[in-house]
User: Fold this.
Amino acid sequence: MAGPSIAPAVGRSWFSQVSVQVAESVFAVLFPSDCRICGEPLVNVSRLPVCPQCLAAMRPIAGGVCAVCGERLFSSFALSGSDGAPRCGLCRRIAPAFVRAVAYGSYEGGLRELIHLLKYAGVHPAANVLGRMLAEAIADLEPELPPDSIAVVPVPLHRSKLREREFNHAERIARAAIKTKLSPASGRLLLCPGILERKRETPSQTGLTRHQRRENVRGAFGVAQPETVRGREVLLVDDVYTTGATVSECARVLRRAGATKVWVATVARTLKASEQPVEIRLSGAADVEVSAEKEIPLARAAGG
Ligand SMILES: [Zn+2]
Ligand SMILES: [Zn+2]
Assistant:
């Protein structure tokens, strides 16, 4: 029964002005920004300022990868080891200190930006999405993991870096991955963030060769709780696997402290592209750069 006599024009305009203000402030809270990856306006309520299209584009690695380190394999590199599993050239030459490293996606595009949102912009809800991805990667290891508990060790930050950033992103992602209960192994995954420590600050690894990266992290880590790892298997967790220098060094000290096996799971991995030069380490010689085969990666050839 609304009519002009019940709701005077002045009251209505005041009310609509207030409701616009309320709507705007609610909008500002629920939709704080555009998608932080593609810039499109967000239309759904979410604590994570990333649109569904950008999230959906973060696909798992497709195509053949090395059974040890997870590097992309091109058909001519798909050389099998003694167990029949394909291995990349590097893993055929030197077996890493870890048994196997798995990763969810390629470290590029939106996934790379999502990791940066957590790491450098402190967008904490990103850890949940990255944790789900990490849980999917861990599920790949499931058949090989021990039936009893396994110690999950996030790659630690140096205390000065931790003070500056206020959180260890690897630990946040590991915690979120365990919470998803995606893999049957989740119940056996025991987060043990205090086992490893970064004893010294390491300069940024960006732009360094594989050999330089290895030198950069050598001796940077120590096992703070050797009694916790002795005789046990460890799952090392980090955001990105680049050349594997960091996780290899962590795995080396964990093994030396008595860990029986070290597994590695990361959210992302840098993958060799056919156009990029491939660094090949010759025994006893300095790193040399050689051109990669002009070949289409398996993933791309398969349309993925
Ligand atoms: Zn987007
Ligand atoms: Zn490999």
